[in-house]
Amino acid sequence: MVMKTSGFIEGSFPDELERVLRSVGSELGDVVDDMEALQVVPLKGAMTNEVFRIIWPTKCGNLNRNILVRIYGEGVDAFFNRDNEIKTFECMSKHGQGPRLLGRFADGRIEEFIHARTLSAADLRDHEISALVAAKMREFHDLEMPGPRTILLWNRMREWLVQAKSMCSAKDVKEFCLDSLENEINMLEKELSHDHLDIGFCHNDLQYGNIMLDEETRSITLIDYEYASFNPVAYDIANHFCEMVANYHSETPHILDYIKYPGVQPVIFSCP
């Protein structure tokens, strides 16, 4: 099913979504039982999904509840297992990480609305914010999550390579050197697999759009766990560093500016 978001924004909800919304409303207890009273606000910043803020009036007059509706992007299930992502989402909620899962429907889900702002590309290079993100990453990596602590990185890359080759023409396969990538993956796995690697639960997609900051409490929340899994912690940190050179909301989102890659800076101590 393809969600017609224009009608959705106007308040015309698909039947399944309306049923789930009514169920969520019943759980909330204090919201009005009138779907036409809901305000739908599209949110920017999501890369693979469409995300909407639902402003739901309560029975207490001028008070409102806020929830978030996430519509899954088409074709993204080729890159991860949606059922596993939902299980991760639920486990994260139990650990007090991220928003709570309020409801599910075929093409999306309803989540708790977090009153925080999504970071921008420039925010990743702010020293204070970067330190907050680092502390949250450490907390994330130390989470006790179910499942074997096996590295997913290498097999996932191989699976994505198979997907890419199946979707590309022979010309594209040659232009992007896809036939040689498997050997490179094998070489990297051999060179970078060591017994002393710190394995933790990694986000694996720490670009700025998946990091939220509460301006009042200065607390960080990591969202969107589609790619989360056990991996070397060093990989998650390296991936985050690579995201510092990207700006997905520019005119050239595919071009990475490696001048912005973080470097080693000396720490200057002042004498008392």
TrEMBL record:
User: Which is one Pfam family of this protein?
Assistant: Choline_kinase
Q: Which GO terms describe its cellular component?
A: cytoplasm
Cited PANTHER family? CHOLINE/ETHANOALAMINE KINASE, RE24176P
Q: Name one GO molecular function term.
A: ethanolamine kinase activity
Q: What organism does the UniProt record list as the source?
A: Salix purpurea (Purple osier willow)
Among InterPro entries, the record links this protein to: Kinase-like_dom_sf (IPR011009)
Q: Gene3D superfamilies, from UniProt?
A: 3.90.1200.10, Phosphorylase Kinase, domain 1
Coiled-coil intervals in this record? 171-198
Q: Which GO terms describe its biological process?
A: phosphatidylethanolamine biosynthetic process
Its family remark reads: Belongs to the choline/ethanolamine kinase family.
Name this polypeptide is given: CHOLINE/ETHANOALAMINE KINASE
User: CDD domains recorded for this chain?
Assistant: ETNK_euk
UniProt entry keywords in alphabetical sequence? Coiled coil, Kinase, Transferase
